[in-house]
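Continuing the series of single-chain predictions for the mutant panel. This is the parent chain; the variants come on the following pages.
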Amino acid sequence: MENQLKFFNFSCKKCGKCCSGRFGDNAVYVRFDEIEEISEKINLSPDEFTVPLIPDLYNFDEESETCEHKLNMYKILENISFQIDEDGFVHTPGRMLSRKKSGDCIFLDDKIKNHCLIYDFRPDLCKTFPFYTISGRLDYCKCEGLEKKLDSFELNKHSDYDEKIVKMSMLLDKREFKDKVEMESIKHHFLKNKNKRFGTKEGLKKAYKNAENNLIKCVVYDINEITNVDYYF
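Parent structure:
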């Protein structure tokens, strides 16, 4: 991992684009342990800063400077029909951070430009951005902080670079391990409690009906509990 990372000349520009809805997908999956920490630090319940983990697309309107959901929620529901039970509930494996009407992350400060209100205890996904791993394989997202790759000569000029690389590598390993453990626990919990039929036309029709009222009825699986959540979009 470190050998792969060391040739990326990454330096956060503090541009805030990864937190904004104007520049693409800014969804942030949060683990149960991260939700607990954030909730404790800011004294808010999880429902006040998270929503069910489901695909949602935003379309930025330059004239109104807001991000609105595209009118293809029906298509989104169709794509996740295997998660929809016979009663029209969407079963989701966890939560993600809420976003404002602008599409920006709920914790992007409105007063101080590009300032994160929970920076010191932000989720691992944010700490490791733009990098992520899949089965130990390193990959990355588009980011202004990723410049040209460094060659061996240039690497020797960055005395503190190795320390940053080791830290990032450890965070990525930790993130992949914890994400995997949580998802396996949720999967086990779901299979143990599965007593509904999924992917039926009747269930999809009921989900469509709810969507007409800008509502998705969800069943959210956390590690230790199942929660019914009305998600308004």
